[in-house]
Protein: Amino acid transporter transmembrane domain-containing protein
Amino acid sequence: METQSQLHVSSNSNQHKEGTSFFKTCFNGLNTLAGMGMLSMPYAISQGGWISFMLLIILAVICWYTALLLGRCMHQQPLIKSYADIAEVAFGYKGRTFIATFLYLELFLILVELLILEGDNLAKLFPNMSFTMIGFKIGSKSAFVLITALIVLPTTWLRSLGALAYISFGGIVTSLILIGCIVWVGEVDGVGFHERGKLLNLGGLSTSMSLFAFCFSAHALMPTICNSMNDRNQYSKVMLVCFAASTVIYGTIAVLGYMMFGDNLKSQITLNLPTNTISTKIAIYTTVINPFTKYAIVITPIINAIEEKWHLCKKRPISILIRTTIVVISVVVALFVPLFGYIMAFIGAFLCVSISLLFPCLCYLKMHKAARRFGLELIIIVAILVIGTFIGIQGTYTSLVQIVKNVKL
Structure:
């Protein structure tokens, strides 16, 4: 990485002559936002009640604003390539190490979640898919986790985000298909939209907030996406498009799912859909496509950090070995801790809140002296820090209690 002095010397005139276009960047950004969290939106509403829907919108606005703060930090120092670079400019090497730990742990756990998602949904379609290997019986969920890892592995070897944009487009299409399938299940397959649900459930509100924070937390990838653009000045427009579109998608599936299944919702709405119907099968098939479109984008910042730290890793054979190793490790964790909803809540409360709410505000305040003057901007940033701290503490405690309880079982 460039030193701090090099980062400060650079001017805004250094723009990328080559990079992803506006629309390709929108595809990548929306694909990272409208991801697997969509499946848990109805569950999140069921945990907090209808009033928690307002928190979905509030957190969307807050996360959009903090994404803009990251963009301003990158605009000030155009040689910044990653979130960790922003942390180093703001707080030095120790700050970089501290924030990078949160950053890469979040991304790694998201990789794990993608694999768990595949195992859960494919096992619903093929419950008897199991086999024995080296004397060990591998059940349906574990078998599909392994198969998914083998299929997704080649996509992690791609280096260009421009190439990944086409995969991202497929992820967006599958999200829209999923919504269509849920509408079909409600209208045609007889489930209906008759559940009233609860207006407010204080006991589950922290879980709702944690899941919402997870859904809008793509900040770990935003600097990478911004750096890939051929015109960084369009970053704010990309963020507006991505957050607005993802909020519509999340809100739609949340309302539809809660009206269909009410308080009986499981951590993934696909697990509630009636079996043996064409619409359910299509919904699950489109769901299992999503991880294939997202895994490579999520793993990219981790790989970039390793290759920048050890330049030897940039050699093609070694780079492939490193990427493969990370995939293998994520498979091992997914097999031993297959708790999709609780892990998502933990990621949202502890890691996503820190990376998406707290750290962008702190880095921005450190890098921009004018922002520390009393005014509307400072009031907004302080309010975000207070809200983020509350959600982080409450949500982390609740999710950890649930994880420990279910692991023991």
Q: What stands out?
A: The beta strands are 131-133, 136-138. Confidence is low (pLDDT under 50) at residues 1-17. The chain is about 70% helix and 0% strand.
